Amino acid sequence: MDFKELYLIIISAITFGYVTAAVLVESNVVNWIGLKTLKLSRFGIHPKLTNIPVIYLVSPRAAHMTASELLKKGEIEPIDLYLAILASNFPMRLMFLYRYYLPVLLPLIGSIAVYYALLRLFFDLVVLICVSIIGRIRYRNLNIQFHQPENVKITLSFNKILKGTIRGLKESGLFILKFTPLFVFIIFLINNGAMDWLTTKLKPFLGWIGFTPIEITYITTAAISPPVAYGLIRVMVEKGETINRILGTMAVGNAMFSLLRSWWNYLLPYYLGLYPLRITAALLLLQAGLPIIYNFTAGIVLIRW
């Protein structure tokens, strides 16, 4: 893995995301979407955050920037943010599955890809139901006044784009200052064998659970690069592995990827430049910790079943 290239890719992508998000905010696109999505409050989302699930599909960065501004102004509390972000996972999962996941795995492993997609969706659906129940109880007496939709107009002018670009670059600079030392620390751990040590320690545990050598190979490979590991699924299919064993192996492989790489490579850059550390830590626990626990649990149950 070329860590310098990875760092530059992350910084470039996040800077572009910050600028795009800031332009969407400055041009009133975010407010316009928010007024069009007020009915989503029935799913247990704070009325001022009903635009988050929709904006998430367009630009996760813009969604977090919007929520961060409301949090700084004291218009929402951290729990309101957590509920809105968790509620956004279900539509995001649907988009991810049909745009990226299924087109790759369906030709490779056929119907097993559909079963795994349903396994992943089940968790997000349960979370959405729980969020809806908690939110509807929390906001049942909340009364917030909004401007009429016709009073919000999208204004994509040069000044708005310039202002958004400057704001986005400032936010990106703040992110880089926070992210760089953490990235260096994680790379230091990887280069000094911390990840290899953890993988080695997990192998006996995985074997004790009942994973076969090829399944353990898939899991350890998926921890570094899921696309590379996908080829092993075809091998398992040809060897006559049962569907539940393949699904269990894929679930644990995904958990390992989230544990060793996903949280710092993908999730941390979305949070670190916008939220205080305590909220960043809470979001990581919710967005990475809960799925890791679910995938490990589901994988072990499927293997032992």
Automatic annotation (TrEMBL):
Domain of life: Bacteria
InterPro entries cross-referenced by the UniProt entry: MJ0871-like
Transmembrane segments: 6-33, 113-134, 173-193, 205-233, 245-264, 284-303
Record's keyword terms, sorted: Membrane, Transmembrane, Transmembrane helix
PANTHER family assigned: GATE DOMAIN-CONTAINING PROTEIN, NUCLEOSIDE TRANSPORTER_FEOB GTPASE GATE DOMAIN-CONTAINING PROTEIN
Name of the protein this chain belongs to: Nucleoside recognition protein
Organism encoding this protein: Desulfurobacterium pacificum
